[in-house]
Design goal:
The chain has 26 helices and 27 strands. With 749 residues, it is of the alpha/beta class. The protein starts with 10 loop residues before the first helix and ends in a 5-residue tail after the last helix.
């Protein structure tokens, strides 16, 4: 650099040098341990003597307890290289005039604007003040001090560096604190990931170190596991301990660190002697501890601050741990330690990227509820564990397993592993559970991923469809999904969805088909029949939507609607003068089994004010035989209300004479199929004759449905049947049409 010859020193500067000699800072022992972390100072000057003089003047001195380490550059260009490759520069002692008159000032802009080094302190030193006026320079450039070389005596240079380094340290502490807070905030958005707790703990480490004014290293956090005897594990660490994250505390090789952390957890309080150890207590009984070597004795103020810090941070740790537990419960089955349905759907989505030779299976343990009922739920849990263990052993590590239902498991893996045959092999041998040998079977639905266009939960639906198909065959069977199978199931679902909407929007209505005496066509009453007209005006056949309503449970609400509507129309017919009019209403087994059925029946009779003798309920023969004890009990309650009962579709079931005698019914109804066959085959005629004879033998009235021709009417009368209904007499009609029909009917009651 350009430098003029220095003039002779004035007397007051010589006095400064003497004072400097007498009051100079203490030198340090070169073997001092603090030499590990010196303050790094970059000297940028084109005069080599300035480099030597600066180092010589500061030799052996400590600033804030640490020595100085100098780096050198003889030009602005060389300084740029040093700055680009070196980190943690506390101070730059920068000459203004070097290869150009403003080389130093341009370097200041480079440091601040391009390198973004806001913490590094910059001290301008110049031998030619005129090239950069002090006031204008301080105003225009982000510098921290401006000195002429002549005024920088040893003491004053030490003072300048000390002030700059103190400022640098404070800025670094603030920056570290900011980073710590940012990490904690970021951790709150990362809690859904495994590393959420680690990120939060790392943020606490950085913030704590900044608060104590030390570098973020030498600190370890540990957390007690879920079980009482679980190992304490390292969850966050910095500096020389950073490689120990996730390791058990027992694996920490440094004995004092290991013992202090354990002592802190055992005593449940902060420890400040021989290394500060902080305790973070949590209400869930899983405390955390952090060890840091502060390097100095903490004052009472420091300790109070740390206690407040730990108390506040404990709440944050609790929230993080709690959220982690919620995530675990949301995605994992707690009993079997398997992925649950939610996690399994994610696995399905991932495997769709490469679905070749991958198969999904749903395995449902047959009659598992009976096992729970017979042996208790604890035994049932042990059965599930035994099944999971054997499935895992049989299907290998390449197969993912999840619990997707109470006794239903999902498997996902290579098609040669996840196959119907391999799954059936798992259940061939009895299971040994709590000293009991238990023979289990399982029904399975399978989907080859490459053959399905479904994704995620839709794949599970396909597997469920296949499983249901397998169950309809026999227990222990397997069924692979097909597109036709899926189309049929989805059509049924669409139909059910439309039925729900239709019921809510009043598109379901009741029609009435008259019942008459066969001899003269005299009306006896009518059967209430449900109809559904879609929004597009199309009619859906009852044999399509009634079974769906029964399986879905919707039949309970629909059945009450039909019963009440029929009773209101019955009341209307009685008011019109048809005192012996009989209204027949069909009732499903689901309605019979519903605990509120009798209350609904009594309420309908009471609200409409009709006499029970004018109402008849029809049940199917198969329904009467399916749960005889329940049906007999409900029939007795019905008869106490004065309501009569008919068995519909008689002859299609398997009822015996003894069963029929036990049922307190009033009428048998010959199925329309036998009415049709009676005219074309001797077998059909024989069955119709048998039903009529059986009814007459039990003093029951017999009515035939589906009569469409005069020949059928004549034949049924010749066989001894007295009542009937069908298109020959009248089609099903709405209420106002029924009333007009009754006015014109022959021999009306």
């Amino acid at each position: 650099m350009r430098e003029t010859n220095s003039p002779a020193k004035p007397d007051h500067e010589e006095d400064d040098d003497l004072l400097e000699f007498l009051d100079s800072p203490e030198h340090t022992d070169p073997t001092d341990a603090h030499l590990i972390h010196p303050w790094r100072v970059l000297i940028v000057d084109d005069d080599g003597d300035v480099h030597k003089a600066t180092e010589l003047a500061m030799q052996g001195l400590l600033v804030e307890g640490l020595p100085l380490s100098f780096l050198h550059a003889t030009s602005a260009a060389e300084a740029r290289q040093v700055l680009a490759n070196e980190a943690d520069l506390a101070v730059v002692l920068l000459d203004v005039v070097m290869e150009s008159e403003d080389a130093g000032l341009q370097l200041v802009r480079y440091i601040r604007d391009e390198l973004k080094l806001g913490a590094t302190r910059i001290v301008l030193r110049t031998g030619q003040p005129g090239y950069a006026p002090e006031i204008e320079t301080v105003q225009a450039y982000d510098i921290n001090d401006y000195k002429t070389k002549s005024e920088l005596t040893r003491t004053r240079l030490y003072t300048v560096l000390t002030a700059a380094i103190r400022s640098y340290r404070q800025i670094c502490a603030l920056e570290a604190n900011r980073r710590g807070l940012e990490m904690i905030v970021d951790a709150s958005t990362e809690l859904s990931r495994l590393r959420g707790l680690h990120r939060f703990a790392e943020g606490v480490v950085t913030q704590l170190c900044a608060m104590l004014g030390i570098l973020p290293e030498g600190l370890v956090c540990a957390q007690v596991g879920m079980e009482a005897d679980a190992e304490v594990r390292v969850v966050a660490a910095a500096g020389q301990y950073s490689g120990m994250i996730n390791a058990p505390l027992s694996a920490v090789q440094i004995k004092p660190v290991r013992e202090r952390l354990q002592q802190c957890l055992d005593q449940r309080q902060n420890i400040y002697e021989e290394g500060t150890c902080l305790y973070f207590g949590m209400s869930n009984g899983r405390p955390m501890a952090a060890l840091v070597d502060v390097g100095r004795e903490l004052s009472e103020t420091d300790q109070q601050l740390l206690r407040a810090f730990c108390s506040n941070i404990s709440v944050g740790f609790e929230n993080v741990v709690l959220y982690g537990q919620l995530l675990d419960q949301a995605y994992n089955d707690q009993l079997l330690q398997l992925p649950n349905r939610n996690r399994f759907v994610e696995l399905l989505d991932k495997n769709l990227k490469n679905p070749a030779d991958v198969t999904l299976a749903l395995i449902d343990i047959d009659d598992f509820s009976d096992i729970n009922d017979a042996f208790g739920h604890h035994f049932g849990d042990q059965v599930l564990r035994a099944v999971v263990l054997r499935l895992g052993e049989a299907l290998g590590l390449n197969t993912a397993m999840a619990r997707v239902g109470a006794d239903t498991f999902g498997l996902l893996g290579p098609s040669d592993h996840v196959s119907a045959n391999n799954i059936q092999q798992v259940f061939l041998e009895p299971f040994s559970v709590a000293g009991e040998r238990l023979q289990l079977s399982a029904t399975t639905g399978l989907v080859r991923l490459a053959e399905s266009a479904a994704v995620g939960s839709e794949l599970l639906l396909d597997a469920q469809i296949a499983l249901k198909q397998a169950k309809s065959q026999h227990r222990g069977s397997s069924q692979y999904f097909s597109s036709a199978m899926g189309t049929d199931a989805r059509e049924r679902f669409k139909l059910l969805k439309g039925l729900r909407a239709g019921f809510e929007e009043n598109r379901l209505f009741v029609v009435y088909q008259p019942q008459v005496l066969l001899s003269n066509g005299q009306p006896l009453g009518a059967e209430a029949l449900l109809r559904w007209r879609t929004e597009e005006g199309q009619f859906v056949p009852p044999d399509q939507f009634i079974p769906l309503a029964e399986k879905s449970g919707l039949i309970i609400s629909i059945g009450e609607f039909v019963l009440r509507t029929a009773c209101h129309q019955l009341k209307r017919m009685l008011e019109l003068g048809y005192q012996d009019f009989r209204m027949c209403v069909n009732v499903s087994l689901a309605q019979f089994r519903h605990p509120g059925f009798m209350a609904v029946l009594r309420s309908a009779l009471r609200d409409t004010g009709v006499d029970g003798r004018n109402l008849e309920l029809e049940i199917t023969e198969s329904m009467a035989m399916e749960d005889t004890e329940l049906v007999m009990h409900i029939l007795a309650d019905i008869k106490r209300c004065g309501v009569s009962v008919a068995i519909d579709d008689f002859g299609t079931g398997f009822s015996s004479l003894s069963h029929l005698r036990q049922l307190d019914v009033d009428r048998l109804k010959i199925d329309r199929a036998f009415v049709r066959e009676a005219q074309t085959s001797s077998a059909g005629s024989t069955i119709a004759q048998m039903v009529i004879n059986l009814g007459r033998g039990l003093n029951l009235t017999v009515i035939a449905e589906g009569i469409e021709t005069e020949e059928q009417r004549q034949q049924l009368m010749s066989l001894g049947c007295h009542e009937g209904q069908g298109y020959l007499f009248a089609r099903p009609m709405q209420a106002d049409q029924l009333e007009r029909w009754m006015e014109q009917a022959p021999g009306k009651t």
